[in-house]
Amino acid sequence: MKTGDPFDYEKMKADIEQVRMFYYDKGYMDAEVDLEHKYNSGTDRVDLIYNIASQDEIYVGKVNVIGNTKTKDKVVRREVRVYPGEKYDGQKLRKSKERIYNLGYFEDVYFETVPSAEKDVKDLNVTVKETKTGEFSFGGGYSSVDSFIGFAQIRQRNFDILNFPTFMGAGQDLTIRAELGSARSNYFLSWTDPWIFDLPYLFGFDVYREEHNRYGLAGWGYDETRTGGDLRLGKDITDELGTGLTYNLENVEIGDIPDDATDDLRKEVGTNLISRLTWSTVFDIRDNKFAPTKGLDTGISLQDAGGFLGGDKDFLKGWYFINFYHSIIEGVVLELKGFTGLADAYGNSDDLPIYERFFAGGAETIRGYKQRSVGPRDRGSNVALGGEATIIGNAEVTFPIFKNILKGAVFYDVGNVWGRMEDYLKTTAPDNDGYKQGAGVGIRVKTPIGPVKLDYGYPLNQNYDDEKTGEFYFSVSHGF
Question: Are both 399 and 333 inside the same structural domain?
Answer without folding.
Answer: yes
